[in-house]
Structures are given as C-alpha cells and as structure tokens.
Design goal:
The chain has 292 residues and is of the alpha+beta class. The chain has helices spanning 15-26, 95-102, 126-131, 173-183, 209-217, 240-247; strands at 3-9, 31-33, 42-49, 63-71, 73-75, 84-87, 107-111, 120-121, 124-125, 141-154, 160-167, 188-198, 201-202, 235-238, 252-253, 260-266, 270-278, 281-287. The two termini are 19 Å apart.
Length: 292
C-alpha cells in the first residue's frame, strides 16, 4: 500500500498523533505527514504511506487557511491554548481600521514565529525551551502571503475577524494574529484555525479519521496515487529501454534545455519517480517504482 491520504485533522490531535493512529489502522510503519498542524487547528494534513513517504520533500509548499482572530487579547502561545498575558476590551475597533491594517500583511513580509512552535534553534525545539522558561530570541524570517480576504466581522468588547489566507510554506497564522493586534494597538490572538489547502490537497476532498476507518472496514479504501500531488512539476515520458536504464541509476540525455525537477513516467502511465534535468540530461533523484 502506497500513496497519500488527504486527512482532515481533528481538533486536539497533534500531527504525530494522526501518524501514530494511521500506522495502527493501516498496519504500516512507513507513514509520514507534510506540513505540521497545531493541535488546536483542524483541516488538511497530507499523509504519505509506504514508499510515498520519500516524495514528501517534493510536494508544493503553498497553503491556505480560514482563521478567526480575536482582538483585545494576547496569550503566551498567540492562540487561545496559552496563558492570557493581557485582556482589555476594544469595542471601539472598526472593520475599516482592521482592513487597512491587513494591507500590511500581503506579499513578502518579515515574521517572527511564535515562541511555542516546532522550529529548532541550536538543535532544540522552541516549545521545549519555552516550556522550561528559558529566554529565547527567535530569529525573524521572510514569508510570503499571497492573499488575505475578510470573510466576517463580529463586533463586541473583544471583536473577532474571520479571514481566508493563502500563503507560502513556513507561515504562522498565529503570528499574523499577534502582529495584526500589535499594529492596531489592541493585542490579538488566534481563536480558531482550519487549513483548507496544503501541498496540493484540498479540504473538499479530505477524509476524517471516521471516514477512513469506515472505508477500511468495508474494504473500499484506496490511497491517492503517489504522483497526484506532484502535478506542479513538469513530466517526462521515457521509452521502455531508457526507462529501465534510468531506474538503474543511469543518466538519460534528452536534449531538453529546461532545468527543473520533473516527474518521470514510462509510456505516460507508470510513474517511475523524480528526476532532475540539467543541461538536457535527466538525472535520477528518487526512483519510486523501479522496472524489473
């Protein structure tokens, strides 16, 4: 069994919890995930099974979310799972003010990840350092926000904003909530998060754990084909003799001028793996399905 599962991660589960559960359900050791989701977040968590775990590094990194930001509150984790640092009503905040401030959060921006995150500093996870009470200087990094769309606005002492965010890999939505609150001088924290797209997979096509268990019990489960999430890469089709040589680790001179990682097929149907074109030569990068 090999391929991908487009899992709708449940609330309260870590990404590792999901992997562990699927290992038991599928009776497989080789299970991995792409794009960690916080326990309080739900939505698309791509899961690779079998040899497809070797393809995780080639998945696209773009993601999309629906988020709820609550103003007037700051927490240690930049979401409602942490301890409250400040809580001050800001009922006078208007949607017009928020919308104007949101314009600062598109394009390439500098972002400091939350101190409670899985990022490593000197080989140690930030959340481990934070839980031990160590003072941490988290380095900023450049992330890209493709679009931010206002979905809803709820007035009150602690008003809330629903937004749809499309972004590149490595973006923390919790940090956007925190920084938006800082720009508005109200404080802000992430109240809810649902990922709607990740690494080529969409929420509309996802499976819950209950869905997956039902399919397995009925003998109806079929993983998503291994190459389905790699459509962002161009493809190359090899004739039988060249395909066998490529699977054996040989370079194939195709005379193509492009430089790119590519999906490699035999006669347009059998996915063989990932190659890299350099100066017209197709170099094996990862042979997924060797030819005997």
């Amino acid at each position: 069994m090999q391929g991908f599962i487009n899992l709708d991660k449940p609330f309260g589960w870590t990404s590792h919890d999901c992997v562990a559960r699927l290992r038991k359900l599928l009776r497989l050791k080789r299970v991995g995930h792409a794009g960690t989701l916080d326990p309080a977040a739900t939505g698309v968590l791509p899961i690779a099974i079998g040899k497809a775990t070797r393809l995780l590094q080639y998945l696209p990194t773009d993601k999309a979310y629906q988020a709820t930001i609550r103003f007037g509150v700051q927490t240690t984790t930049d979401d409602l799972q942490g301890e409250v640092i400040t809580s001050e009503a800001c009922g006078g905040l208007s949607l017009a003010e928020v919308t104007e401030a949101l314009s600062k959060f598109t394009g390439k921006i500098e972002q400091i990840p939350p101190i409670y995150s899985a990022i490593q500093v000197d080989g140690k996870r930030l959340y481990d350092l934070a839980r031990r009470g160590e003072t941490i200087e988290v380095p900023s990094r450049t992330v890209e926000i493709f679009s931010v769309e206002v979905l809803a606005w709820r007035e009150g002492d602690f008003p809330e904003l629903d937004v749809a965010i499309a972004c590149g890999g490595g973006t923390y939505i919790r940090a956007i909530a925190r920084d938006l609150g800082a720009v508005l001088n109200t404080g802000g924290t992430l109240a809810a998060l649902r990922r709607t797209h990740s690494s080529g997979f969409n929420l509309t096509d996802s499976l819950t754990l209950a869905d997956l268990e039902a399919q397995l019990q009925a003998g109806e489960f079929q993983p998503t084909p291994a190459d389905a999430a790699l459509q962002h890469l161009p493809s190359v089709t090899l004739p039988d003799i060249s395909a066998k040589k490529w699977c054996q680790g040989q370079r194939i001179d195709l005379g193509l001028e492009i430089i790119s990682k590519v999906r490699v097929y035999q006669q347009e149907t059998q996915f063989l793996g990932i190659g890299e074109l350099q100066e017209g030569v197709l170099i094996p990068q990862m042979v997924f399905e060797p030819i005997s």
